[in-house]
Amino acid sequence: MYKLDDVLAYNRSFVENKEYEAFVTDKFPEKKMVILTCMDTRLVELLPKALNLRNGDAKIIKSAGAICSHPFGSVMRSILVAIYELNAEDVYVIGHYDCGMTGLNSERMLEKAVNRGIPETVIDTLTHAGINLNQWLTGFEHVKEAVTKSVNTVRNHPLLPKDVTVHGLIIDPKTGKLDLVVNGYDALKATD
Question: Which residues bind Zn(2+) (predicted)?
Fold first, then answer.
C-alpha cells in the first residue's frame, strides 16, 4: 500500500526541484477537446500517448467504464463546463477492451460491501427509499454498446450545442490501438 507520508515526501522534492515547470499550462484545453474515459489504471499514461496528448491539450473526465449514466449527473455537467467555460469543441467517449465494468454483478458487489462492514440495514434503507442499487451498480455486457449509449446520452442532451461533435472510440489497453465506434462528424452532417 502506498503511504501518505511517501506521497508527501515525494511531493516536497518535486516542488523544491521545480519539476512542475515541465507541466505548466493554463486551464483551457489547447486541442479544444474533452474526453470521457475509464478510470482504468492501464490508461493513465497510455491513453494520452496513444492520442498524442500533452499536458494542457484536453480535459479528461474519468468514470468507471467511461459511462455517462445520467444526463444531469456530474459527468455531463463536467462536459458542459468544458464546452461552455473552457472552449472545448469536441467530445470523445473512449471505452476500452477488458473493462472491469463488463459483466459487473451488482449482487456480488453488494455482498462485498456487507463483507467490508456495510450493514445490510443500510442497503435495505436505500432500497426502500427508491434507490435501485442493482441498476446503479450494474455494468455492461459489451463495451461497444456502452460507448454508443454514452455517446447518445451526451449528444442528445438538451444543453449540448448542436455544433459540438461527439465521437465514440474503444482503446486497446495493451497496445493503445483505437477502434472507431461513432464518428461524430457523420452525426453532425446528418443534422444539416
Answer: 38, 40, 96, 99
Contacting residues for 156 by C-beta, under 8 A, at least 6 apart:
71
| Angle, CA 161 vertex, CA 158 and CA 166 arms, to 5° | 95
For the domain made up of 14-100+142-191, give the CATH fold.
Beta-carbonic Anhydrase; Chain A (3.40.1050)
Binding-site residues, in ranges, read 38, 40, 96, 99
- List per-block mean pLDDT (blocks of 10 residues) for the chain, which spans 192 residues: 87 95 92 97 97 96 95 96 97 97 92 96 94 90 96 97 97 98 88 67
Task: Identify which of 89, 90, 65, 40 has the alpha carbon closest to the alpha carbon of residue 147.
Answer: 65
